[in-house]
Every structure is written in C-alpha cells, then in structure tokens.
Amino acid sequence: MENKTLLSALIMSLSLCACASGGTADEQATNANKQASVESASDTGISVEEASSEASAEIAPSDTGYKKAYIELIEAEQQKIASVSPESEEYEECMESYLLYDVDKDNTPELLIRFGHSEASYNRKMYTYADGKAQLVEESPSGHTSFYSVPNENGILYYMGHMGCADCIKAVLKDGKTEYEELFAEDINEKLQAGEDADYKPVSEIVPGATYLEEYSYTTTYPIEMYEVIANYSSEGKKADSTSYTYPDNNPEFYDSLMQNNGTVNAVALDSFMNTPGEISFEKLTEKGHIYEYFEGGGEINGVTYSDLNSDGIYECVFYIGEHDDYSDTDKAFRVILAPQDGKVYAYLSFSPYEDTVTEDGYFITEPEGSISERIVQRVLFDKEKCFTFSVPGEK
C-alpha cells in the first residue's frame, strides 16, 4: 500500500534507529538555558468549544505558567529560523519540530525540541518547567529516532532504528535530570540477509500501551495552548464526548451543496508540506499548485465521509484527493477536512494521509500492515487558522 510505505519512511526514518548519529552536545546549552528561562505567568490556554473546556478541567496542571515559558522558547526559535537562509550552516542548527509529554507524570508536560533538518544529524533538547522557569534538562543526538509514551509511570521512550539495528531506551526524569535504561536492542541484518521477512519489534511489545508521540511544526504554538485537551484524550479510558450527530445547520446537504455550487473555503495547511492558500473557491482544491506546490491538478475527490472531530455533535466532512500521473498513483494524495466555523468553512489540508479508517466520533486509525508494526490513532484539533494533529493511545 503506497501511503503506508510512505508512513514507514516517515516513522521508520524519524523513528527506530539503533545507529543514531553520535554528535556531541552543543557547548551553548547553558546559555540557551539561561536565555530560555522565563517567569511564571497565568494560564494562556484557549478553548475551542465547550467540550474542550470540560476536558481541560479534568486534567489541569497546578501551575500553567509552563505555557508562557514554552511558547516563548518556540517563538524565539521561530525568529531565529526567519533570520537565516535555508542554505546556511546556521539553518541546520535551527528547530524543526517539538513535542509535549509529561515525562515524570506530575501533570505538567516536558518540552522536547528537535533541531536540524537532516535525519542522521538531528539533536534534541528536553526542557522541564520548575521554579517558574523553563529549564534545560538534556541535550543529545536524536537521528533516526521516534518518541513513545510510557503509560502510568515516569519515563519516555526513545526508539532508534537504522540499517537493520534497533534500540529502545527509557529516559526517566528525576530531580531535573534524566536517567537512562536500555530496554531492548536487536540486529535483524542476518535474518534479512537470509531472506527472512524480518522487521523491528513493535514498541508496544516492549512496553505495553506505549503510544507514538506526535511532533508539531515549529510554526505553531497552538498545541501548547491546548495541552490539557491533548492530555485528556490521551488519558486512559477517555472517549469523544458526542454520542449522536447532526449536520451543520441540521442540513444533510450542507457539504454536498458547498461542493456542487463551488462555494468558498478558507484553506489552511494541517502539516508542513501543504500550502495555506486562504479563501479560495472549492474547485481550486483540485487545481494545479494551489494546495501543494508540486500538485499537477486534475485530482478526483473520493472517500467522502463524515466525522465529529471536535466533539460538538456536528459532523465535519473528510475526503481525499487522488493523484494519478507519472509520479504518483494513489486515491489518497491529500486529505481535506471541511469544518464550518463562525460563518466560514475551513478546509484543513494534509499531505499523503495514511489512515485506514475515520471513525464517526473523530479518530483517524491506521492498522498495522507490512512494515507498519504499530496501530496509530490520531485526532485533529482546530480553531480557524490554528490546527494540529495529535496521537492518542492505540486502544481507542
């Protein structure tokens, strides 16, 4: 399956990697820590809807000053990226993505930032929030590495894999420092050379319940604002709130009418690959170059389904745009989510989605197949131009 092959390239290259690069830590880490330290501040969270407000109340850190501290870190990196050329050496030292995860399970997330733009030479920095400040905990190489949760106990998993070797390391946060334990290592090269159908051991078989942790683009701080909602959906037993659904304006023809009458949508990139063209007519979604720089246009719409993505009881519309040419042959080159908000219809754009199903209550599910050894379950949060995808436990 072509899209799952791409997912394998993304997760197995941004994932699994025992032969990770072995660069040394940056000598400026101490200065970066001092510059990153910020004073505690009041909550800057934003609720997109009533369900999100309720979710935020269920899992609420005792001190939400971490939001201001982490946002200032990300914004400083945004300014740095804007000031350098992608062709410069300095660009390779710039942030690419970040994730939030409560490593020590104290109800306040840690911030992990990935630096660099080459898979083999990525570095990461972990920050924790303590004494009213964002404090640097560690800096280390993270080439060919993905991050996974450790359910219900202190820790985060670094799963590294490259060229037939894999290594799973558990990092525990204690007293502002990390301690490491190697949980698993393997070399499958002999099996591969013998012609066996060998693959890396799934993370969930090493640590039951471990979940792939989604990384967010450096261009948005919205995931930090919405951390409580992410944590609530990621908590054990949490389900989407709605049990019955309707269409916008109670009109089952709402989305069909928009498509057939070439209505206006406000198109926004949901990932770093897609364009954000803003307000365009619906038909331009399938025309050359509007939603993706290298899209030749002429793609057909397929796989239309309806799902309540924000747990308000009203369906959003999910569909795919196919691409069949000399370079691509897939019905799912792009995904579009149509979501009415404040009198406008927003169209959230994703590149080469890999989910097998979209549930009625808003989960995007990818089942294990071939080189994809993990069940991946995701949700989407959005508020007009702000949006992101996040992972939840695979049992959802």
From TrEMBL:
Residues 34-45 have a biased composition (Polar residues). It comes from the Bacteria. Transmembrane segments: none annotated. Residues 1-20 form the signal peptide. The keyword Transmembrane helix does not apply. Residues 46-59 have a biased composition (Low complexity). Keywords: Signal. Residues 34-59 are annotated as: Disordered. This is Lipoprotein.
